[in-house]
Amino acid sequence: MRQSRRLMALGGIGLATTLALAGCGGSGFDDGPAASGGPDGGGELTSSDDALTVMIGSSGDAETAAVNDAVAAWSEESGIDVEVIAATDLTQQLSQGFAGGNPPDLFYLATELLAGYADNGSVIAYGDMLENKDDFYPSLVQNFTYDDQFYCAPKDFSTLQLIINKNLWDAAGLTDADIPTDWDSLAAAAEKLTTGDTTGLVFSGEYQRVGAFMAQAGGRLVSEDGTEAVADSPENTEALTYVKEHLTDGTFAYAADVGAGWGGEALGKQLGAMTIEGNWITGALGDFPDVDPLVVELPAGPAGQGTLQFTNCWGMAADSPNQQGALDLVQYLTSAEQQLAFSEAFGPMPSVQSAADQWTADNPDLQAFLAGADYAQGVPTNDGVSDVFTDLNAQLATLKDADPATILQSTQSNLEAIVG
User: Fold this and answer.
1) 307-361 pLDDT, tens per residue?
2) Where are the alpha helices (H) located in 121-262, listed in sequence order?
3) By CB neighbour count within 10 A (0-12 exposed, 13-18 middle, 19+ buried), where does 337 fall?
């Protein structure tokens, strides 16, 4: 069922990027290192009195404060000291930590980076050691399963959905009957909402947003089992052609092209009347009290409903001298109670099924995000895919003046170099 209830901001944070949700690496396409195994064959965790270091890619002050508060409570209870580091560039700082032999014990780890860290032995597979392992959504467990090993606990997740500035919607004479249900009605609404300095639909010019249209057309970058590159499909071409058409007619725009850092900022500053984002937008909109946001499910495309799903896990360093302490901390941080507290503080959806009913009751205006879990695609997790994303995103930035088929053919070639 389509959700069309009002969104209520859950807390004020600074304008966020999606660093941890969509981290990308460099620009090469060389094969990754040869597999060197996951955890030690005996499955034993290291244990010591050593303090723990936790590195996060924070969306803003609210998230940083919430993680610090949770870790401090666990630290007081356990007697283990913990330092939380809010990285300015998580991917780079993690890489530097591993290269220097001093990685954090726990850290946010994006799906597209897991395979590389697993192959070079930087992280261990501890997922099956978790007491709450059966409580995680199966699709999230799959996101962090590599070589048939469940590596790490999903810390939370979100799907992309459509967020509307209800004030601008009403001013344009639109009603609930006009809420987009397909691509044609999305285009019609965007046209009516485009006026003056406001563009109808504004979102980030990257696969991690544009990819939702691919899913709605029935496309994807890599086959569901991860064994075949399928980027240059007719479905993906249809999706990019649709986006290009409306970038060209001025009813859609990329955030960067209207002077915003991301879709949430564009919506908050009324540079865009609608945006495509995840539920992390809730905290950021607390900085824009004049915006009355409405969250609805993204309209269906030619193949039906489709969106993207994003998640991070709590990666655990193979070099950590206190893995048992780290495991205990992860179980605390991923409990239903603590994840609901995180949700209240900065907006993410809990990764455990036992929290779903309470989360829905607490957030009736955000139900569209949870509804998307039934049909969302996860981003590809093949080793090296972050490099492909970097190249694809550079090309998508020029989509308005580029050929969709050419972009997808280039991406297909890049993916074939890493898939299989």
Assistant:
1) 999 999 999 999 999 999 999 999 999 999 999 999 988 878 999 999 999 999 9
2) 138-143, 166-171, 183-193, 207-216, 234-248
3) exposed
Q: What is the pLDDT of residue 411?
A: 98
The more confident residue out of 222 and 20 is: 222
Tell me the C-alpha distance between 297 and 217, whole Å.
16
Per-residue pLDDT, 287? 87
**CA 219 – CA 408 distance, rounded (Å):** 11
25: tokens are 């690496």
Question: What's residue 171's pLDDT?
Answer: 97
pLDDT, position 386: 87
Of 400, 60, 365, residue with least CA distance to 247: 400
Residue type, 128: D
Element (H, E) at 159: strand 153-159
CB 365 within 8 A of CB 5: yes
List, as one string, the DSSP characters of 225-268: TSSSB-TT-HHHHHHHHHHHHHHHTTSEEEGGGGT-SSHHHHHH
> What is the C-alpha to C-alpha distance for residues 402 and 244, in angstroms, rounded to an integer?
8
User: CB neighbours of 417 closer than 8 A, spacing ≥ 6?
Assistant: 29, 31, 384
Q: For residue 359, give the nearest of 282, 259, 255, 271 by alpha carbon.
A: 282
Q: What are phi and psi of 206, to 5 degrees?
A: -150, 160
Tell me the DSSP string of 68-84: HHHHHHHHHHH---EEE
CB 138: neighbour CB atoms within 10 A? 10
